[in-house]
Design goal:
The chain is α+β, with helices and mostly antiparallel strands. It contains 7 helices and 5 strands; from the N terminus they run ααβααβααβαββ. Zinc ion binds next to loops.
Length: 196
């Protein structure tokens, strides 16, 4: 009961946040996932023949949880189910935000293309690996991570995601969620830096 009431308050705050962000593009930009950050968000230079089969999601678009493409269908079923349950609870609480994803499962080929971009950007593999994980080191490649599109949904999950085991993993990535605790458990402390 307490958790539910708390969630209602949170939902109200989410709505307020969404309304205030709608009128303030600067604040919205600060919360939104940066475009072109290695490991996150398709950059303009990203092509290399990546397709839906790599989990590629074009810049500026996001997918609902019932999408029939590999970025969603190859997610860990438990992660997808937890997100769907959270989405249902949000709707029941009157929160109009939707959980859609800008990144979900990625192929190793996709992850390696992100790494190659980082090598170009940072000048060496030694430096790039500080910013982008390789292959199955990435939770996205294992299907164990999603990046959320909507600021209101991020806010909801940051506050209440632990009810379904969903946790923000990196302090600097408000959009990146993984199953990191049992439902109703306590999320582990966030890492200071994300290398999704
Ligand atoms: Zn991520």
């Amino acid at each position: 009961m307490h958790a539910h009431r708390t969630r209602l308050i949170g939902a109200a705050l989410s709505v307020l946040l969404a309304v205030s962000l709608a009128g303030c593009s600067a604040a919205s930009g600060a919360l939104a996932k940066p475009v072109g950050v290695p490991g996150h968000g398709p950059g303009a230079e990203r092509s290399g023949g990546l397709t839906d089969d790599d989990g590629y999601i074009p810049e500026g678009s996001s997918l609902p949880l019932d999408s029939d493409v590999p970025a969603v269908t190859r997610l860990d079923p438990a992660l997808r189910a937890a997100l769907t349950s959270a989405q249902t609870a949000m709707a029941q609480d009157g929160d109009s935000a939707d959980i859609t994803i800008t990144d979900g499962w990625r192929s190793e080929r996709y992850q390696e293309s992100l790494f190659a971009q980082a090598v170009t950007k940072y000048g060496s593999e030694e430096e790039a690996v500080k910013w982008v994980k390789r292959g199955r080191d990435s939770a996205h490649v294992r299907g164990e991570a999603v990046d959320i599109a909507d600021a209101g949904a991020m806010d909801f999950l940051n506050r209440f995601g632990n009810e379904w085991g969903l946790c923000q993993v990196y302090a600097n990535e408000a959009w990146h969620f993984e199953l990191r605790t049992a439902p109703g458990g306590v999320c582990p402390a966030q890492s200071p830096d994300g290398r999704g």
